[in-house]
Design a protein that fits this description.
CATH topology of the largest domain in chain A: Phosphoribosyl-aminoimidazole Synthetase, Chain A, domain 2
CATH superfamily of the largest domain in chain A: PurM-like C-terminal domain
Structural class of chain A: alpha+beta
Order of helices and strands of chain A: HEEHHEHEEEHHHEHEHHEHEEE
Helix content of chain A: 25-40%
Number of domains of chain A: 2
Number of helices of chain A: 11
Oligomer: homodimer
Distance between the termini of chain A: 14 Å
Radius of gyration of chain A: 19 Å
Strand content of chain A: 25-35%
Largest interface: A-B, 72 and 72 residues
Shape of chain A: globular
Chain lengths: ~325, ~325
């Protein structure tokens, strides 16, 4: 059987079973692996990006570098961690221009520098296709670790920023629309802003009961939280935060629910922690945790949110 | 200008200049990046391997996985570190068999397990070409860190194991020779044994003044030590440790000096630390540190060792 017959999520489940994980928190369940290290947890995450899937032709080398660091930073943020070091492996075709590679590294450095993290090392390799793997280390106090596990019935469901923006940007690339809309959306798509500072503030505030990022889309992320907590959701379809530019592309629920590539935080809080959470960062309450199905309600119509979004090998 | 016009080493020099490194030891100079972390240093290294360059057709998936972990473990070893966690990013063609991927992960786990290190996380990505990036974390007591810098005139030059084995294995693949010789050499090539335990023992013994691994070959590694210390070497050409099977492929100095892909340790010690080092691990004294050129002497003929070996983009 080939891996395209089962998809990425089933493949990862199978591979994870081959690895003994009894000493590690988070492996296969959270956005990062979590290692017990003295008074703290060490967090580590690695992400592989490459030309044909992750870097559209319109993307500048600087943006490829920025994005490569941003996606891994988002994983550290998703657990409430403070990132402190990055390494990067670059697979490069041998006919690539030096200036192109320098552009990538400048973009990586710009993103890392914004969050005060050094790029401490790396590797270069000759490769048919441009491939970038960033691995980021973070740390978190033991009582501030936020995991997918922890949400309970009655909690409020919250997201930072807006939903569906990256998917709208991807569609905009192929559409003949106002240049300012296209520009705004593709900039959001190509230069995602990981919610590192928001995550640290939330973790410190002790307001959240669970957290993850929504890089695979809100729908798949809700299903991940369901898997970790055996809970349901009622999502308020008319409360989903969406940019005006995104509404130019589509006004339906498809973009905010199923669009992938946004590096926003999805988290749950106890209703009585709402004020404390508001002091930590800006976010929108988009629903509540239930004991039922994963549902969205809009204009008095309630329907199931499907487990679809971004998945490799599908 | 394209990167193939300058080669990997010049490219890395250029990229390193783009990154501010004032708070990091080792960046661009050593086998790992070194991070100040409380009472210890954290070590981190990342290596990208891929089908066309690193995995000959004769290699089993299990061996691909093993090698991917082994090369990064060797970097941690090269600085005297104790590895403690691995993450892996796998780029996989979508038509690959699940059993093939499981073979890779089993090989990775076997190598990690041999050194008691968990594989704590990872990423999978759809990729035209099989690509594996292992990133390994290690730690080392501050007074036990071994760097390339530190060798001084009069020190003895030492290596673990044998030289030229991997290159002999690579050549053997294309030769019509005794099956037992071919098997012995390709097994060494495909299942390298990182010198983790030897390195920890050496670091603890306080016998070594500098260390690195010789994955790019002895010659390039000696030039790296020269660059870090402004020293020369006199290498004893008749003392270079070479397997009998390697001599079947070539009896000259080309394999032990210029063959790449051996994951042995190259280190220097003070002559009066020789006995202490012998108690730590097995090795061969292959020369001495001088203030002159990088030379090899064999049968009363002395010649320069060139800066050639394995380099990407060349």
């Amino acid at each position: 059987m080939k891996i395209r017959d089962i998809g990425e999520r089933a493949l990862i489940d199978r591979l994870t079973k081959l690895l003994p994980h009894d000493i590690v928190l988070g492996a296969g369940e959270d956005d990062c692996a979590v290692l017990d290290y003295g008074d703290e947890y060490l967090l580590i995450t690695t992400d592989m990006l490459h030309q044909s899937t992750d870097f559209p032709d319109e993307m500048a080398p600087w943006q490829m570098g920025w994005m490569s660091v941003a996606v891994s930073l988002s994983d550290i943020a998703a657990m409430g961690g403070r990132p402190f070091a990055t390494v990067a492996a670059l697979g490069l075709p041998d006919d690539v221009e030096i200036a192109f590679v320098e552009g990538i590294v400048k973009g990586m450095n710009a993103c890392a520098k914004k969050f005060d993290i050094p790029i401490v090392g790396g590797d270069t390799d000759e490769h048919d296709e441009l491939t970038i793997v960033c691995t980021i280390l973070g740390s978190v106090k033991k009582d501030e670790l936020l995991r997918r596990k922890g949400a309970q019935k009655g909690d409020l469901v919250c997201v930072t920023g807006e939903l569906g923006t990256a998917e709208a940007g991807l569609r905009a690339l192929k559409m003949d629309i106002q240049p300012n809309v296209k520009h705004a959306l593709t900039k959001k798509l190509f230069e995602p802003q990981p919610r590192v500072n928001e995550a640290i503030a939330l973790a410190t505030s002790d307001a959240a009961t669970s957290m993850m990022d929504i890089s695979d889309g809100l729908a798949l992320s809700l299903h991940d939280l369901n898997k970790a907590n055996n809970i349901g959701f009622l999502i308020y379809g008319d409360k989903l935060p969406v940019l005006d530019e995104t509404k130019v592309i589509s006004t339906g629920l498809d973009l905010p629910l199923y669009g992938a590539g946004d590096f926003e935080l999805l988290f749950t809080i106890k209703p009585n922690a709402l004020e404390r959470a508001r002091k930590a960062c800006q976010f929108t309450v988009i629903g509540e945790v239930t004991s039922g199905d994963i549902l969205v309600k809009k204009d008095d119509v309630t329907e199931k949110i499907e487990a679809k979004g971004y998945e490799h090998f599908r």
